[in-house]
Amino acid sequence: MTAESINVLFGKGKRINLMMVLYGNQNKRINYTQLSKKLSGCYANIFSVIRLLKRFRLVKTTKEGKYTYIELTRKGLEVSRKLYEIKEMLRWKIRKGIK
Predict the structure, then answer these.
(1) ∠ at Cα 24 (46, 39), nearest 5°?
(2) Which of 16, 43, 69, 96 makes the best surface tag, with the fewest CB within 10 Å?
């Protein structure tokens, strides 16, 4: 497995990348605009991904003033943790030269 194959597996998936950003920013409040910048995606795409993740109860949103903040639910945190572990395990195999 190569670094390129990991990017194909995880790098192109907007949903996974979005969850990884939220997982990495658990203690910080993050809104749609901040997510758009971190993921280099347009607001509309981020909004549609969040809407889908909400259906699966992986994220929840909180409206405060003119901003809507996004955070992982307990289920979303668990799924994100597992995805992170898988991603790190695959990176470890690449560093060790395991094919």
Answers:
(1) 30
(2) 96
